[in-house]
Amino acid sequence: MDDALLDRLGNGKYLLITSYKKDGTAVATPVWVVRDGRTLGVWTVADSWKVKRIRRRPEVLVGPCDLRGNPTGESVPATAEIVDAAPYRPLLARKYGLLGRLSLLGSRLRRGSQGTVGLRITVKD
Length: 125
Known about the structure:
- This protein has 3 helices and 7 strands.
- By secondary structure, it is α+β, with helices and mostly antiparallel strands.
């Protein structure tokens, strides 16, 4: 695995995750991202459509993007795994500062601790 690629994706402000519908249609979604060792971590709502698509088909494309999901670099193949969000919360709070902490708090108040999941993204070699 290329550390430079993981650094570029993990240090960017947003990551574009492209997941696939049942009919094969690609759906791209911008998300916050953190690097967690040899993988990337994402925190998201447990019942979101991207989670449902990833549960069905874990193969995704990931790449850097802006707030609106406009790609700012090349996407690469990866695998997404649905995991507990707890390890990613402090990493996100640290990376995104006050906005990150407020978002995490607001989500916990609205959805409870079980309302979000983590996505562990492993970039393919």
